[in-house]
Amino acid sequence: MNIVERYTSPTPKFFKVLRNIGIALATVGGTIIAAPVALPAAVVTAATYISLAGTIATAVSQAVVLDAESDADSETPE
Fold first, then answer.
1. What 3-state DSSP class applies to 66?
2. What is the pLDDT of residues 2-61, one digit of tens each?
3. Confidence band for 78, pLDDT divided at 50, 70 and 90
4. CA distances from 47 to 4, 30, 41 (A)
5. Where does the chain have alpha helices with state H?
6. Stretch (H or E) spanning 12
7. Which of these, 48, 52, 67, lies nearest to 10 by C-alpha position?
8. Consecutive H or E run containing 37
9. Is the dihedral of CA 26, 32, 36, 41 positive or negative?
10. Are 10 and 71 in contact (CB under 8 A)?
């Protein structure tokens, strides 16, 4: 499976939620960094880390794919 197939394959529900949270974190962090008012250095530094964490969470969550075998195994209780 190449990278294009991986990113276009279906994503499990948990990772869709995690991806959306990551997008929100990256957006909030980017907004704080780009704020037109002077903010304390600690706030800008924290926003940088929040933005980075959100970006990483989004990328990793999008790369997770549903596996047909594991999905079938989870639905059959034994």
1. coil
2. 888 887 888 889 999 999 999 999 999 999 999 999 999 999 999 999 999 999 999 999
3. very low
4. 30, 7, 10
5. 3-8, 13-33, 41-63, 68-75
6. none
7. 67
8. none
9. negative
10. no
